[in-house]
Amino acid sequence: MLSPVPSFVHSLTALSNILDKAEAFAEAKKIKPDVIPQLRLIADMLPLWRQICIATDHAKGACARLSGTENPSFDDTETTLAELKERIAKTIAFITTIPDAAFTDAESRTIVVKAGPRELSFSAPQYYGGYAIPNFYFHMTTAYAILRSNGVEVGKGDFLGG
């Protein structure tokens, strides 16, 4: 299996750059730093800060599980855009320590994930293609949409890392 690290690094870097634009937007509009992370698309959806925490958890979790590396636990205590960017940086720092060779036998692994009260078991290809990647991009897309719907000037090129 090819290492998923480069793809996650690329997308996490794009997400961090999107947060840079959100910071500039907040500063220009005189919005307090703790307001933007609390924004939601709609009342029953998780706020921006939680979307980013979950996206980073899926990136580091996928890389750890597929490589057989211990998955570090991050506290979900971020309340500002700067703290969310630091979380993204910590995620990138962790996943870039995993050598490509660690993914060589990834396809033969069985991946078990706790999802709420349930445990889900997947083959590695099922986990990566049907769980980790869709979840990562769902939460990254939702974070993007929260910011865009609140006036932050970001576009597809920002999302794609262009």
Question: Percent range for helical residues?
Answer: 55-70%
The whole-number mean of residue pLDDT values reads 97
CATH class: Mainly Alpha
- H/E element order: HHHEEHH
The stretches of 5 or more residues where confidence is low (pLDDT under 50) are none
How does the overall form come out from the CA principal axes? elongated
How many beta strands in the DSSP annotation? 2
**First and last CA, distance:** 26 Å
CATH superfamily: dinb family like domain
Question: Can you tell me about this structure?
Answer:
The protein has 162 residues and is mainly α. It has a single domain, classed as Four Helix Bundle (Hemerythrin (Met), subunit A), CATH 1.20.120.450. 56% of the residues lie in helices and 7% in strands. It has helices spanning 5-28, 48-67, 81-95, 124-149, 156-160; strands spanning 110-115, 118-123.
